[in-house]
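Progress against Task 2.4 (sequence-to-structure conversion) is shown through the following example record, which the project officer requested during the mid-term review.
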Amino acid sequence: MKIAMGNDHTAIELKNIIKEFVESKGYEVLDLGTNSTESCDYPVYGEKVGRAVASGEADLGIAICGTGVGISLAANKVKGVRACVCSEPYTAKLSRMHNDSNVLAFGARVVGSELAKMITEAWLDAKFEGGRHERRVKMLMEIESR
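Structure tokens generated for the chain above:
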């Protein structure tokens, strides 16, 4: 399984930690983020992650900026993306189980590296439950198509 990862200048260190963590779990990582500390625009990287997931180039995505909010908003502008900002593992797990999220976002200025690993692991380990949740996800996709 391939995970697209993107980040802005605020999240280089955390992206590298999470990238190594994800690779240690046996996933392939497509690094679409910046490696420069020079100020850059998070929408560029959120869109890159979103497009990689929506096109099938990657199975899932992880996007990291200062808070996770801006980069998730950018990813969510790509049709077919369901990005969620998670600051703890429970929300990350349920976002996959109930909302079939395909992009995880969090903030390098909000969560530390160990918590980010726990969030990532909970999200990657969770599986979409379908059932009543499938109907609701389809409703989200219908909103997107209008």
